[in-house]
Amino acid sequence: MVGFTSISGGIVTNKAAIYADTLELTRLGKKLEGSTPVKSFARLVQGLPEQPETNAKWMLQGFKDDLDQSFIDVSVNAAPVVVCQRCMGSFAFELNTSSRLKVVKSESDLNQPEYEDVSPEEWDEPLLATSRLDVLELIEDELILALPFAPKHESCSSEALDKAQSLNDGLTDLDKSPFSVLSQLRKK
Ligand SMILES: [Zn+2]
User: Fold this and answer.
1) Do 40 and 51 meet the contact criterion of CB atoms below 8 Å apart?
2) Given CA atoms 154, 155, 157, 163 in this order, what sign does their dihedral have?
3) CA–CA dist 109, 126 (Å, integer)
4) Do 85 and 48 form a contact (C-beta atoms < 8 A)?
5) Region 59-82: what's the mean pLDDT?
6) Which strand (E) or helix (H) includes residue 127?
7) CA 147 – ligand 1 centroid, Å
8) How far apart are CA 49 and CA 182, in angstroms?
9) Separation of 153 CA from ligand 1 center, angstroms?
10) What is the dihedral angle through the alpha carbons of 98, 104, 108, 112, rounded to the nearest 10 degrees?
11) Which residues in 129-183 belong to E strands, given as ranges?
12) 84 CA distance to ligand 1 centroid (A)?
């Protein structure tokens, strides 16, 4: 495993890359776990509000089944701050993901017909075997997939809703009355 501070696009992400050998993980039934600042996941936080100092906790567990097939279970727990699409207030959105990846040996295995014959519940996303699996890229992908497109509070606070409502009313008034705006302009 090699770690270094990655610099992309001139921005120091301060995220040390972590590489894992998928064969080693699955053959030895190895477990890898870590804690990484949410704000260091540049693709995840793009378009999100300023992130506080919270960490994403993640775990990879490799194993082989009775048929000698290789798998990696991935789980991530994080709470990135998002904007509620109902009241426009920002809040920490709790994400708990777990997926099972099936390690395959060749590119052609990624699209094998056998995957079409199984139900989505049984389907395990294929992952190409590599000695340099970028663990944090994988974790970031998991988080991005788990984050809803339009996150909302379970129930918005009435204060926040009122604020959003009044903003909304302001817009609607303008939309509804172009003539009153026009007449006001004419008076000048
Ligand atoms: Zn809300």
Assistant:
1) no
2) positive
3) 8
4) no
5) 96
6) strand 125-128
7) 16
8) 37
9) 4
10) -60
11) 133-134
12) 5
pTM of the model: 0.74
- Residue 25 CB partners (closer than 8 Å, separation 6+): 32, 60, 62, 72, 133
pLDDT in tens, 80-132: 999 999 999 999 999 999 999 999 998 877 775 555 666 766 778 899 999 99
Give me ligand 1 centre to Cα 146, in Å. Answer: 19
Strand order through the sheet with 125-128: 31-37, 55-64, 70-78, 95-104, 125-128
Question: Is residue 3 over pLDDT 50?
Answer: no
For residue 151, report the distance from its CA to the centre of ligand 1, in Å.
9
d(CA 81, CA 78) in angstroms, rounded, equals: 10
Residue 91 CA to ligand 1 centre (angstroms): 8
Kindly report the three-state secondary structure assignment for every residue of 14-32: EEECCEECHHHHHHCCCEE
Kind and range of the H or E run holding 92 = strand 90-92
DSSP string computed for 55-70? EEEEEEEEEE-TT--E
For the stretch 4-48, pLDDT in tens is: 444 343 344 456 789 999 999 999 999 999 999 999 999 999 999
Specify the 3-state DSSP secondary structure of 84: coil
